[in-house]
Amino acid sequence: MADERPSRPERPDRPERPRGDRPGGRPGGPGGDRRPYQRKKVCRFCKNRELGIDYKDAKALRPYVTERGRIVPRRISGTCAKHQRVVCNAIKQARSLAILPFTTTSI
After folding, report:
1. Which residues contact 57 (CB under 8 A, 6 or more apart)?
2. Long-range contacts made by residues 17-23, C-beta under 8 angstroms, separation at least 24?
3. In a 10 Å sphere around its CB, with 0-12 CB exposed, 13-18 middle and 19+ buried, how is residue 67 labelled?
4. Residue 71: what are its φ and ψ, rounded to 5°?
5. CA–CA gap between residue 100 and residue 62 (Å, rounded)
6. Is the separation of the CB atoms in 88 and 62 below 8 Å?
7. What pLDDT shows up at residue 28?
8. pLDDT tens digits for 26-80?
């Protein structure tokens, strides 16, 4: 008898909500609008072994630096952890040798 719970009383003052809707009109939850499936990003350097990461090649490092000069994170660039570390070090080395800018010139 101890594991039996009393049933919840019905609440006629509360309107019944559909299960997929969340309060505030936000999508999500079971049956809610989800983002479409995105293909998994594959590391360029793992796919093509001949591609090298060189701090002297500013053109090759450009896709990994934003317009503001920040290093693009792994989840956006699609590089693996191993190559992201190498790219990050190459960008930092190129910055210290003035091959790549630290920030943009205009504000």
Report:
1. none
2. none
3. exposed
4. -80, 130
5. 9
6. no
7. 57
8. 555 555 556 677 777 889 999 998 989 999 999 999 999 999 999 999 999 999 9
- Tokens read off for 54: 């060189």
Non-local CB neighbours of 42 within 8 Å, separated by 6+ positions: 78
Beta strands in 36-94, from DSSP E residues, in sequence order: none
Distances (CA, A) of 88 to 65, 66, 98: 10, 13, 15
Contact by Cβ (8 Å): 87, 53: yes
Question: How far is the C-alpha of 77 from the C-alpha of 85, rounded, in Å?
Answer: 12
d(CA 52, CA 73): 19
How far is residue 93's CA from residue 107's CA, in Å, rounded to a whole number? 24
Specify whether the CB–CB gap between 36 and 43 falls below 8 A.
Answer: no
Residue 78 contacts residue 43 (beta carbons within 8 Å): yes
Q: Is the pLDDT of residue 22 over 70?
A: no
